[in-house]
Amino acid sequence: MSMTPEQQAAFELGAGYSADQVSLLISGAGAALIFLFLAWVLFSAYQGWADKSLSMKQLGMTLLRIAFLLFVTLIVLTV
Fold this sequence. Notes:
By secondary structure, the protein is an all-alpha fold. The protein has helices at 5-15, 19-50, 56-78. The longest helix is centred in the middle third of the chain and has 32 residues, at 19-50.
C-alpha cells in the first residue's frame, strides 16, 4: 500500500526524511544483522569442525543453510 502525496509530504515534514530513506535504513540495518548472524554461525561451525565435534556432512549442511539464507536476504533486498 503506497502513501498519497499528502501523506508523503506529512511524513517527510514530521520525520525529516522521506519514507524511502527510512525504508532503506531499516532494510539495511536488518541485512547487516543477518550478515553478522551468518558470520557468527559460520565461525561457530568452523570451530566445531576444527575441534572434530562437527562432521563434514553437518558442516556442509550448515554452509548450505547459510548460503540459502544469504540468497533469500539478497533477493528480498533487491525487490
